[in-house]
Specification:
single chain; 92 residues; mainly alpha; two-stranded antiparallel sheet; 3 helices; 2 strands; 67% helix; 4% strand; elongated
Length: 92
């Protein structure tokens, strides 16, 4: 399947420069960039689907950890502290 893509001149120039530095053709460089973007978006879709599944499971069970406690816990970890891990419990 052939696809025509209009690329602005400034983008063509940047592609050509980067492709030359990598010793590939501009065409190969663009295909790699498109493949990487597709993989990123597919991974994002999988991540979002898993997040939605887990949220639904949590809501159904009615058990979880309030976001404020999670953020406080990770904030303290990032500061090098050793906070007590918050426990899941019934949510209102």
């Amino acid at each position: 399947m052939a696809i025509s893509l209009r690329v602005p001149e400034d983008v063509k120039t940047r592609i050509a420069k980067l492709a030359k530095a990598r010793e590939v053709t501009p065409h190969a460089f663009m295909l790699e960039a498109i493949r990487e973007k597709i993989e990123d978006e597919e991974a994002r879709a999988v991540f979002q689907a898993e997040a939605a599944r887990r949220l639904a499971k949590m809501k159904k069970a009615g058990v979880g950890i309030p976001a404020k406690e999670v953020f406080e816990y990770f904030s303290r970890l990032a500061k090098g502290e050793t906070p007590v891990r918050p426990k899941p419990r019934k949510l209102p």
